[in-house]
Structure formats: C-alpha cells, structure tokens
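Final report, Chapter 2: Outcomes

The project's central promise was a pipeline that accepts a single protein chain and returns its three-dimensional structure in a standardized token representation, suitable for archiving and comparison. That pipeline is now operational. To close this chapter, we reproduce one record exactly as it appears in the project archive, with the input sequence first and the structure output second.
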Amino acid sequence: MCIIKKSDYRRIKELIIGYEAGSFPDRQTKKRILFLKEKLNKAKKVDDASLGLVDIVYLNSAVRFKNISTAEEKEYLFVYPKIECKELGRVSVLSNLGVALLGHKKGDTVEVKEFDRSKYSAQILKIQPTSELWIKRLEQYKE
C-alpha cells in the first residue's frame, strides 16, 4: 500500500495540474504523470504529524535502495523537478524512480520502469527525512 503525507499529496497534485494545464514535453512524461496521478488517488493519505512517517518515502526524503538484480546500492534525495540534479544526488519525484518509490516503506521492493522499457526491482534500504529549510535553500540556489 502506498502512503502519502497530505502536504505531499497537495504539492504533487499541484505539479500534476501544472503539467496538465500546459503540454507534456514527451510521451514518457505524460505516462509518468498519469501513473503518478493514479497512484496518488489510490494512496492512503495521512496527516504530516502521524507517527511512523520516517520509514516512508516522501518528497524531500533521502532514500538508499538496492537494485536486486545487480546488488548495486544508490542513494538519492527526492525533490521537486526544478531542483533535480542526478549528478548531485537529487532526483525528481516525477522521475521513473521517484514515481516508483514514492509512498513505499523501508524494506519494500518495487518495480522501476526505465525509459528504454527495461525494468528492475529496487529494495528500499534506508529512508532519511530532510528539513524543509534545507530544501528551501537548495531551491534558492538553483534559481
């Protein structure tokens, strides 16, 4: 089951509305947005103050995961698209990986679909929440 903080639900919904109001840059983006929209609609929405949110992947979480088939481990911070920079470890919540992991908990294994249509299973190993202040500083730096 996918669990989403109510504040993340509102923020991501606003992003989706923005994409729907304009045009999608490509078919892959449109597919991801539609999948994310469906995922949000089915997700259990919880208050931000709920206990246990530390072990859930949400916007602005640092997540360590393992590719099951290669045993390779990676860690990324899941952020808004405007401050995404994969080289610096920041991945958009609207990326294939972001959409796949969003709302899942530590220990879950999820399927990630790549742009080339390949798939892999990723097991969530560690989730670390980040401060909103830190994220705001990243956003200011990016602009």
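Archive annotation: The radius of gyration is 14 Å.
This record, like all others produced under the grant, will remain available to the consortium after the project formally closes.
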